[in-house]
Write a structure and sequence with these properties.
62% helix
């Protein structure tokens, strides 16, 4: 195998030396990022907060499927939510706070499976035996 020519080695070493020196003397800045709200999550009133809670509950796959089973379309649900009084909307939001919002737990299941697979791979790499009784 041929090595770098002498001239290329010199310029490569000089370039890397200057590059790493520049990285070494560059100041590191750290701090807290300023908080700002996005346009979608701005909650200006208690009604808007309750509406967000109810909409997140309606994103749950089980709730959406049950509504479809009863013959209710998502557009009808949104139209009725817009027509609810503040008191009724708050009561609905309070009742739905204990329910999972937006997910059915598939992400959690996948994360657990990935962790189990990683443990098995690490144990195998260490030449250990896995025995399940």
């Amino acid at each position: 195998m041929l090595s770098f020519p002498r001239r290329l080695r010199f310029w490569t070493a000089l370039f890397l030396l200057l590059y790493w020196s520049g990285l070494h003397v560059a100041p590191a800045a750290a701090g807290l990022a300023p908080s700002r709200t996005s346009g979608e999550t701005t909650v200006t009133s208690p009604r808007a907060a309750d509406l967000v809670v109810v909409e997140r509950t309606l994103e749950n796959k089980l709730v959406a499927q049950k509504l479809r089973d009863y013959g209710v379309e998502p557009d009808q649900v949104r139209a009725r939510l817009a027509n609810l009084s503040d008191e009724d909307l708050h009561q609905l939001a309070s009742a739905s706070r204990g329910l999972p919002s937006g997910s059915d737990g598939l992400g959690t299941l996948i994360a657990i499976l990935v962790i189990v697979i990683l443990v098995i791979v690490i144990v195998k790499l260490m030449n250990k035996e896995i025995v399940i009784k």
